[in-house]
Amino acid sequence: MEGKSLYKCFLMAIVLLSSCTAQKKVLYLQDVKQDTILQIQKEQEIKIQPNDLLSIIVNSRDPELVSIFNLPEVRLSAGQGTSAASSQIQGHLVDADGDINFPILGRIHVGGLTRDEVADEIEKLLKSGGYVNDAVVLVKFLNFKISVIGEVNHPGTYNVSSDRITLFEALSLAGDLTIYGKRDRVMVIREVNGNRQIVYNDLRSKSVFDSPAYYLQQNDMVYVEPNKYRAGQTNINQNNSVGLWISVASFLTTIAVLIFK
To answer: How far is it, in rounded angstroms, from Cα 70 to Cα 139?
Structure first.
């Protein structure tokens, strides 16, 4: 009986150690203690890039005066046999040189600028050209999107209504990581000035908040690597998997018989 008790304790110890190891691989922000205060890092301002689609609306006390500077809305039909329709704001596409073709003002270079900087530049041009003295310009992204692939529950491309989204928010949109996703190797792939930048992030540590990729930018791709168990499954077909589980069940049954015999 004493031998059986020791054996049971040994098995329980193995289970507990395995559980602790699994938690260290899965839990987020493990090094953050209760009541911890972390200074919020200033997010990087989004810079306009080629192929961005911008909504630029000029406002004034005289709507008729600024109407020539605003692109008309496109009316979209809901489908054949239906009377419902919706409207969509047209956008200014940034070309390969970082320029847009703005009504009346002509070509304006916006590449590398922030939304606020573009708005200020257009306001200055409208005032200096004598077109509108009280112009207020609003600039928004129309095609801000990010992609999340790999070991997440809902991989895909997601449109973002604003130009601010964190890495955790992007993973939340994708349904969080699966149990097979590596929390310490979440890759963000970003294109900057014609170069691809790759940043690895460890979701288990508070250091993720200091990552240059914690705040995502337009067209960023998030890739969650599979762990070794998921990677190993690619070499195991369905029949082998069934055989493996049968072997495990047989092994556990044998142990149970020996313990309680």
So the answer is: 12
CA atoms within 13 A on the CB side of 116: 3
The model's pTM is 0.72
Is the pLDDT at 79 greater than 60, yes or no?
no
Give the tens place of pLDDT for each residue, 213-251.
999 999 999 999 998 876 666 555 444 555 666 666 666
Cα separation, 121 vs 72, in Å, equals 22
What the chain holds in terms of domains, given with CATH numbers, is: 53-71+87-141 (3.30.1950.10), 144-231 (3.10.560.10)
SS3 212: coil
DSSP state of 35: T
Distance, CA of 105 to CA of 34 (rounded, Å): 56
Separation CA 85–CA 241 (nearest Å): 52
Which amino acid would we find at residue 7?
Answer: Y
Q: Which of 197, 196, 173, 198 is nearest to 185 (CA)?
A: 198
Q: What is the DSSP string of 148-180?
A: EEESBSS-EEEE-SSS--BHHHHHHHTT-B-TT
Q: Which residues pair with 158 in a beta bridge?
A: 146
Q: Residue 260, Cα to own-chain centre: how many angstroms?
A: 52
Q: Give the H or E element holding residue 99.
A: strand 99-102
Q: Nearest 10 degrees: CA dihedral of 61, 100, 217, 173?
A: 70
